[in-house]
Inverse folding.
């Protein structure tokens, strides 16, 4: 990925008067005020939080308690549930908290957002990659790290095309399975040095030295509770535990990729890029709606499990609103988009979104016109 330096930061076009962004913000704020609703969590979110945390930690306790000595099938089923638990915690609890959308209490947001540290990640890195880079520079090559997969995948028409990319719509799914494993093993260290070079760590009120120590301690803790403790007291051989962890991370990696990528890397995405003087043709909010798509809006189970991230348009415009409110404010966003003659892209099902992503990978891999 290109270095994110002050010379490379782009400038979005003025939003205009009246602007799409101003109008949609006013109408969404009016919705919360007129209905006397908080934009933060509610009782449904509290129940979901307990459910998602339980989906990870209860199976872990079962593994440690010796469920493997009763049945290896049950043992591996626990790791499968833990993989789903990572997805549920990541898309619902951690995601909202690190956006400051769970509550107006920063201590609670930091506590729940910090659950990522226990799952093998590092919340300070996540806030830089996701909150700052992805949410600001969505689908802009060299700035949005969510579409950066090194040279192996081409997720932007502005990325150099290699001959093997014509097969990426076939092999991408296997790479997605490895995404979480790479994150736990190496990604956080690589990103820490990158963010230090780009002078971005100070935004998280830390230094490279402090972050490296903190990250290393968290990795040791992760290895200790995920590998050492089960090996010592679970009653099953170490290789079963390693294989169980692999199952867990494969499920988590593939699931998270299939949730996030179809919202941006699809045929309806605009992929507008800055001019030579680093200026964008559209205002920030317009750029977001042109590079984001919703899917499966009517599927309540999908919306519940993936933290409303099938309402990505709403999330990108209102990241500090808890996702439990997205279905209602989506109606407002769609109406205002039509008022400003902006596209409001919705794919009907989760399956259709995955298919659209696959087609886009094939198109990008063959350098077809976007």
């Amino acid at each position: 990925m290109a270095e994110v330096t002050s010379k490379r930061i782009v400038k979005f076009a003025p939003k205009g008067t009246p602007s799409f962004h101003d109008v949609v913000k006013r109408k969404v704020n009016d919705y919360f005020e007129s209905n006397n609703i908080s934009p933060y969590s509610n009782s449904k979110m509290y129940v979901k939080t307990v459910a998602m945390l339980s989906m990870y930690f209860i199976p872990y306790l079962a593994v440690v308690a010796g469920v493997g000595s009763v049945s290896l099938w049950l043992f591996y089923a626990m790791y499968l549930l833990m993989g789903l638990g990572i997805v549920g915690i990541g898309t619902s609890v951690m995601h909202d908290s690190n956006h400051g959308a769970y509550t107006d209490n920063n201590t609670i947001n930091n506590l729940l957002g910090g659950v990522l540290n226990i799952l093998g990640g590092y919340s300070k890195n996540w806030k830089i990659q996701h909150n700052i880079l992805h949410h600001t520079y969505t689908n802009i090559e060299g700035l949005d790290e969510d579409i950066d997969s090194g040279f192996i995948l081409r997720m932007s028409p502005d990325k150099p095309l290699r001959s093997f990319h014509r097969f990426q719509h076939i092999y991408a799914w296997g790479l997605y399975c490895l995404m979480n494993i790479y994150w736990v093993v190496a990604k956080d260290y690589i990103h820490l040095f990158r963010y230090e070079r780009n002078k971005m760590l100070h935004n998280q009120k830390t230094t490279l030295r402090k972050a490296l120590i903190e990250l290393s301690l968290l990795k040791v803790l992760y290895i200790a509770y995920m590998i050492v403790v089960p090996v010592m007291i679970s009653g099953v051989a170490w290789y079963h535990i390693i294989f169980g962890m692999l199952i867990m991370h494969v499920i988590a990696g593939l699931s998270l990729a299939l949730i996030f990528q179809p919202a941006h890397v699809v045929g309806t995405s605009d992929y507008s890029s800055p001019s030579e003087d680093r200026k964008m043709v559209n205002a920030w909010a317009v750029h977001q709606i042109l590079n984001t798509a919703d899917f499966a809006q009517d599927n309540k189970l999908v919306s519940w499990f993936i933290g409303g991230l099938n309402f990505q348009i709403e999330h990108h415009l209102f990241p500090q609103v808890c996702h439990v409110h997205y279905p209602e404010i989506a109606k407002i966003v769609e109406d205002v988009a039509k008022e400003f003659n902006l596209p409001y892209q919705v794919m009907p099902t989760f399956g259709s979104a995955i298919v659209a992503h696959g087609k886009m990978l094939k198109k990008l891999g063959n350098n077809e016109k976007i």
Q: What stands out?
A: The first helix runs from residue 20 to 34. Residues 87 and 255 are 7 Å apart (CA to CA). Residues 20-365 form one domain. The chain has one domain: 20-365.
